[in-house]
Amino acid sequence: MSFSGTVRLTDLNDFIAPSQNCIKPILDKRSTANQSERMRFDRDEINKSSQEKRILKPVSVTLDDCLACSGCITSAETVLIEQQGPKEFLKMIEEFSNDNKVISKELKSLFVVSISPQSRASLAASYNLTVEDTQRKLSAFLRSLGADICLDTTFARNFSLLATAEEFVDYYRKNYLNCTSTSLSISPLITAICPGWVCYVEKSVSDVVIPLMSKVRSPQAIAGSFVKDYLSKTMNVLPNRIRHVTIMPCFDKKLEASRSAFLTDDGSSREVDLVLSTSQFKEILDEKCADFKNFDSSEQPNYLCLFDIFDENALYNHEGSGSGGYLEFVFKYAAKELFNLDISSVEYVAQRNKDIQEARLIHDNKVLFHMALCYGFRNIQNLIRKIRVGKCAYHFVEVMACPSGCLNGGGQIRGIDKMTSNVVEQLYHSLPTVQPGEWPNLKLLINRWLGGSLQSEKANRMLKTQYQAVKSTKSMRFNLEW
């Protein structure tokens, strides 16, 4: 008997849409432990294990249910894509504008939009604009819809980078400085700014990875705490009267914004109310501003003039990767703080593919620390295997779920060729770079917002978070119908 040398599998998809069977059991109060029930979105389900048939009420699965379920990784994302899209944004900003026409001074409102630098670069490439022109036109367009303040989340990344670098220095001093052990196994500090990676860790590999996760928030999450805390108090607007929308390169940022940890202190609202992907925001531009490239951006900011912290015309970037440059900054910061070495540039060594790159600090023929960029789940799986078997050689790892990192996020504008993808990267890196600690208004904002120090109790609440394992349900994964 002969066999074909090639087996071709097509149309394979492991994505679990909410219309399919969900393995999270939604049991009523009379349910018993030996029942094996299924739940299907938007329809009734009959209990198939008990002797008598009874119709269960139609279930309602919230985003929190999805995030608290270990059954799958991506169903919650689809729920959010449906709940947080262009229509919802336009409805929100229209309602906000109508409210403001009749609102009393005691109940005034504020509409804030925060734009990620990766999204801005993707939009700039799509419209053949410079990054600076794109930012000005975005701000003017959003204000024409009714937004009050447009922020560049690079300011929040200053805090994220600095807090991560300080966290690593403390981690290294505690675990490796003056260490006499000859063990080759290292437990790295791993970034946790990628929500897809965080969701995967909490649901699948929590036992191994959560103790190694950085506690520092992502730039989006820090921007959220800034808007609902600092702006709320500075502008004398209640947190639940502020609408905060972000434009991000990744659909999973919707998951991040919906975490219960990212509520305001009084619990009245989320720190980020709605997240639009870059591609979703382009849908809004296509509908509301067909000629965005020639949109008049001469309108001056109407609220930012109240702040001496931000300048829309002074855009800047950070050195390093298109995902924020975490390894780059932590490497240089730690070299100076731990060993008093000034590093002008970091030398990266690509491994089997471009999405896994390593960098070593070598002094007097001795490796002082070893770091890595790890992008894409193929490389992430290899990293986790090395950690499990005690063969990880890294002290710090910058992890992103998307291949090529955030510039190639799942929410970026698609239908572009490799050349355009390169243009996105070039535009992203076209701005002048500023070291986070050298941002002119950093100390001012630390004093006004964080109590004068990045180590203060206020800074710990505003800049950091916690992660926890999502316990597996008793339902079986093979209950899913493929």
Automatic annotation (TrEMBL):
Pfam families reported in the protein's UniProt record: Fe_hyd_lg_C (PF02906)
Gene3D superfamilies found in the cross-reference section: 3.40.50.1780, Fe-only Hydrogenase (Larger Subunit), Chain L, domain 3
Domain Iron hydrogenase large subunit C-terminal: 111-410
PANTHER family found in the cross-reference section: NITRATE, FORMATE, IRON DEHYDROGENASE
Family of the protein in this entry: Belongs to the NARF family.
Function: Component of the cytosolic iron-sulfur (Fe/S) protein assembly machinery. Required for maturation of extramitochondrial Fe/S proteins.
Protein name: Cytosolic Fe-S cluster assembly factor NARFL
Species for this entry: Trichinella murrelli
Gene: NARFL
